[in-house]
Structures are given as C-alpha cells and as structure tokens.
Amino acid sequence: MKARHKRIWLCVLTGILCTCNTSKEVYDFDNACSSIGFHNNPENIKIVKQMQKRKSHIIFIEDTASGNRFVVKQADRESEKRQFDIINEALGSHIAQSIKIPTQRVIIIPANAMKSIKKYPQMPASLHTFVPGKIVRESSYKQIDIKQYASSDKIKPKSGLIYERIRDMSLHPELPRIVAFDTFIGMNDRSGVNYLYDKQTDTFWLIDMADAFKINLCKIACAQVRKMIDNDELVLTTGECCALRVYRNTMQFLIRQYPPEKLQNLFDSYLEQAAFYFTDKVITLHKQIMSESYADARKLIPLLNRLIAKRKDNVNVHLPPSSGGEKIMDLGVGSIVLLVHNQPFKSWIHTCMWEDKKRW
C-alpha cells in the first residue's frame, strides 16, 4: 500500500481528518457545511424521510436552525467502486457551478462525520442542497430526451450526440450547455428524473451526477457526429444549428478550463476529503477516462464545425467576452447574455424555434 493511501486509511481508523498533499491543508468540514447554509449540529438535524434508490440510499433532512433542507446520499453498498459515486457528485457539481449551470451544491461528508445520520456510519457520503422545480419527467418538457445512453464505449444507435439529441436540446436555451457538460464529464444518465425544471424561473437544475467520469462520451460523440456529417440527407434547422454552436462553445470553454491535470487534482482533493481508502487500480481507471475523454473532446470540436457548416444559412452565435478575456455564457437566474445578432438568446430561441415545438 502506498504511503498516500496508508495516511487516508489512518484517517478512518483514528477519526482524524487530514489530507495527503504537500500543503498539509486540513479539510474543514464545518466550514464546508457553513458554505452551503448547513449547521453541523446533531441537535438541529431532523430526518424528514428516507428512500432506497437503485444504487444509493437517500436521506432528506432539515436543518432546524436555518429551516434549510438538504439531501444526504450514500452508495447502497460498501464496495469501493460505489463509494466513487460521491466523488463524482462533488466534482460534477463543482464543474457545473464554475460555468454557471444551475445545479445542486455538493460537499463531501467524510467517513467519520455525521455518523448518526448515515446508513453506513463508517462510509463517506455527500450532502446536497435542495433545488427548486419538478423532475423534468413530470414537467412541460417531459417529451425531451437528452440522456446520452451509453453503458460502455461501444457505439449504439441511441448513444451519444445523435440528431434526436440535437433536436431536443434546441428546444430550450439552457439545454445545449447541459448536454455539452454531460458529454465532457461522461454523464450518461441525464434521464427525466436527474434534472428538474422550475417553471417560475424557466430554469433547468441538475441533480445526481454519480455516473460521471465512468464512460468516454466524447469518443462516442465523435463517432456519431461523423455519421451525421456523412449523411447527405441530414439538414439542420436554424434552431438546431444554433444549439449545436452553443454546445460547441461550451465544450471549447470546458476544454480550456479543465485540462486533465486540473481535473485529476480536483479529483484527488475530493478523495482526500472523503477520508476513505481507495485502491490505486480504481483511481487510475477514473483518471485514465478523464485523460482519454479530454483528448477526444479536442477531436470533437473540428467535427462539430464541419457539421455546423452543412447548414449554409445558419446564424452566427456570438458570445460576449468576459472580464477575464474568455468567451463564456454568463447565466444569472433566468438571465442569459448569449447574443444572436445583438438580441438576447432567450427571446430569440423562443421565436426562432416555435415551429420545432409544434412537433410535440
């Protein structure tokens, strides 16, 4: 066993939280709780209900001191592979927040913390904030399917970025960014219960990213885009083409912001926060997928450009530069500053794609 993992295992045995990086920084769990409005005091924690899902045990709790509600999630088995789900949840949430995609905020509950709440007291867990809205399957967008259907790198008719996915993501301005985000992190299970739609703010909220970083969806996207390029009968509508441009621009930004080294360092930091022993074999597998996905994401960009070029009368989607010089979509609640011919993207997309919505 390597020294790094010996120290993590020691954390579990002794109940002492520490990290194994050179900076010797200690994960301050109480401070992390405060950052999401949660008071880590057993006297203030009220269990509202519990439920067992296919791969996880979920506990809904209320912080009586603040009145805020939260979700505690644990893998349904004590296997090492399943414990990686909480790491994926935290890392996926971090990346989504960094590009201002509405999502749950997630922090790691170390193996030796909040034992009285967890189903498996000695195992780590994740703590999630509540988000508004209904699951998409029960909303006005229930016909939309942006799930990228892949259980392996094998190319199947419904897997990855296929035409039907482009069509569906063109029906709302936030969806292309969500689909691009899912492709980048390998999130293959964005089913109608894994994101919510808040009608009041016209906003989609992401939840449940346990399946991230397990499959190289960028490789599958490359294969599917090549098929669409070679399909002479395929003609993209203006709305579909604009959605594809937003998808491409989001992918480009993620490529610039999250090279493999940065992703893997973030991954390591969450592993250390969990204070749980993970073997090198499983860690190496996850990091290998990150590196391979990044390489294929870079290959995907020129392919997307070729697909977009098939639509000769497509409009130019312009992203205004941010203060840092990067081109990024700046999302506030219900506000998008993505411009098309100097018009707000949100009003434009509802106008230009009204005929697409008639399909439903």
Question: Explain this structure to me?
Answer:
- The strands form four sheets. This protein has a five-stranded antiparallel sheet, sandwiched between helices.
- The chain contains eleven helices and 13 strands.
- It is α+β, with helices and mostly antiparallel strands.
- It starts with a helix and ends with a helix.
- It has two domains: 3-129, Phosphorylase Kinase, domain 1 (2-Layer Sandwich), CATH 3.30.200; 134-357.
- The protein has helices spanning 3-14, 29-35, 80-98, 163-169, 175-185, 217-230, 238-257, 260-274, 280-309, 345-352, 354-357; strands spanning 45-52, 56-63, 68-75, 106-109, 125-129, 134-135, 195-198, 203-206, 317-318, 331-332, 335-336, 339-340, 343-344.
Dominant shape: globular
Structural class based on helices, strands and sheet pairing = alpha+beta
Low-pLDDT parts are: 1-24, 313-360
Number of strands: 13
- Percent strand: 5-15%
N to C succession of SSEs: HHEEEHEEEHHEEHHHHEEEEEHH
End-to-end gap: 57 Å
